Give the backbone structure.
Amino acid sequence: ESTPLITSPEPSVEGFVREYLRELNFTQGTVLERASTNDKYLALARTVRHYLMSRWMRTTNEHLRTQPKAVAYLSAEYLLGRQLDNALIAADLTEVASEALASLGIDLADLREAEVEPGLGNGGLGRLAACFVDSLATMSIPAIGYGIRYEYGIFRQNFVDGWQVEEPDHWLDNGSPWEFAHPEHEVTVSFGGRTETVTEQVGDDTVERTRWVPGWKVLGVPYNYMVPGYRNGCVNTLRLWSARATHAFDLEIFNYGDYAEAVRAQTFAENISKVLYPEDSTPQGKELRLQQQYFFVACSLRDFIDQLLPEGFDLHRLPERVCFQLNDTHPVIAVPELMRILVDEQGFAWDEAWEVTQGCFAYTCHTLLPEALEVWPVELLGRLLPRHLEIIYRINDEFLDEVRESSGDDELLVRRMSIIAEHPQRAVRMAHLATVAATKVNGVAELHSQLLRDKVLADFARLWPEKFTNVTNGVTPRRFVRLANPGLSGLITEAIGDGWVTDLDRLRDLEPMADDPEFRRRFREVKAANKERLAGFLERRDGIEIPADTMLDVMVKRLHEYKRQTLKILHVVTLYDRIVSGRLDPEDVVPRTVVFGAKAAPGYAMAKQIIGLINHVGSVVNAHPEVSRVLRVAFPANYDVTVAETLIPAADLSEQISLAGKEASGTGNMKFALNGALTVGTDDGANVEIRQLVGDDNFFLFGLTEPEAAAVAEAGYRPSAYYEENPVLRRALDLVARGEFSGGDRRVFEPIVSNLLGEDRFMVLADFQSYLDAQERVETAYRDPDAWSRAAVLNVARSGFFSSDRSMRDYLDRIWHAEPMEA
Ligand code: 26Q
């Protein structure tokens, strides 16, 4: 039984105007004549919200009433991007809103620009979570996303003399019209203290129980965000937790009178959700980070059990109602937390609790780099979460018994598989804990899942082969095609209807259009218009000028040595060198604009060096009269989802050039292919699947394969040998080393040069020549616009597989076994 719902307004222009003015006057408290752009934006956001509200309430009510099996996605990051446009297209309101605003003399485009995107993630993993919740809503799957409402999201990047400088991201400062705070559903989270054993009388028996006596507590306040499905009546919820001091602090103020100290304690508690950690590999074992992880996971489990299940629900049946999907190991502390709830609070026997827990969790791994695997020192974990550490020890004891049993006491194996590492310090290996607890463990692309089985988690895959599966990543076609590329969307819809937006395999129907010269011409027109849109955007935003009508060559992703931005910049240096030295006539060069976008983790010195190098090379290239006629470098600062949405649709060439075996999947690669860029890429991550689908003729493959790279490493890699034997490479590196891009100062980029010549962990030099050769093929292909656009159209037509809707179907079939709600 629920109260009657106020229904959302009917979508008409007059109605929209009325709703809009009501918001402006009654909620924003201003009138049109005096309203700032931000006032107008906030009023618009709230107006759009109205149109989704009854769907949201209805979806929630249905969920609570019918109690279907739900997916609870646990992720420390959601890189959502701007909300306004997505809400407008989901509600099919763009035209109505635009006309209504126009009648008031307001340009919708100006208000779009006023939104600060919620950057609550670092990169791929956080954006993936955002795509997944979008797809789940569009597929009417009962699902909830749980995460952290960071007050400061990913830092804003600035360049000072070409070097990265970070600034805090004040994304909440202008108001946050998309969130709904629910302080009445606050959850208390405990930390620290100790455990004690108590004996209890249960009937005739005395039983020993462990009790956690916490040292301090914080409150979690949920903030709900709408996750609208695309025109299907379903609006799911994303629930992000914000930390507050407990009311106990207020009491202390009263009793003690030490006001300043009490307020300090308050800030301390509220620090937990203050800031997103900007590292996306080599995590530092920071105490606050572990606090964040436990904080959001404890809130989420409590919330699911108390708010989403009926009162008195028998938790033995929890696996019938939910799968908690662990987005990497960041939420893995949920495993001992559920055990604690079941054993300590609900009185379950250990084995019973373990069976329930194992039925409720699944784990997605997103990495292959050993240094990116999370470990938490036992000392730290035990101090912050003493009861959880005890539970982890017991899980490990029982698990290792199983390993001994099945291996005939192979103690080496036992040590390798243990959840507890002994060296260099005693620490909990979160990936092992996740693998032991989960019903399923998946990688994020075929190659990655294979390498997990064969290398990273090989011992576990031998013990439990059926536990391991693959789900190749995907991206939402709503945001990354429909919204980001209206030109291409229109062209596709004209050709094959609009079903592709929610059924991306239909793009296959475009294949014949690749051979239609008129379609290709229009495709090129769309590209050209997208490039113009990008040029205007970069001009306004950064004062960067990019020439019209050049090949747009784009490398956007976090800055990491394994992703090899250095390989790309060495290509640029080589082109520069060849032209400047007269070896190459500019007339023979296909004019190109190379665009970079990348943030470096603030503590990652080498990554920051590489950013400096790119900017310095860019300055020299762009200032050179001959070179700059055919080659430009643009590096707009602060690459984010909003930039991606204008950049990707304009791209001709997508750079996916990680060393094979290092990039788990990549998802940018998919966005580019879907927007009709051709890929120059290694045989890595999802590139492998992209190439298989689009065909070798429509993909520029280069570089070592994973087994080849592994063999080279095994045999002892010597980068200097490549330097000595390849004069082109030598000239490029020498230019950098001699200070060509640093005003003659050889010290500036010395660390990069000596790293490449000495260790070169990611084999940039080994792949250099192969990359140059691939770029030659790119140039040749680009010279034939008809052939190029044919290949580009085929990339679009054959990339439907990379919809995150397909990823969700795979998770549903292979892992979650949940079903859509009836409309
Ligand atoms: C962990 C502990 C402490 C601090 C930070 C972290 C942390 C945060 C973010 C560790 C890793 C990340 C993010 C990883 C990530 O984005 N991985 C990417 O995930 C994509 C989606 O599956 C893949 O496509 C990429 O290949 C993978 O690099």
Remarks:
- The two ends are 18 Å apart (CA to CA).
- The chain has a mean pLDDT of 96.
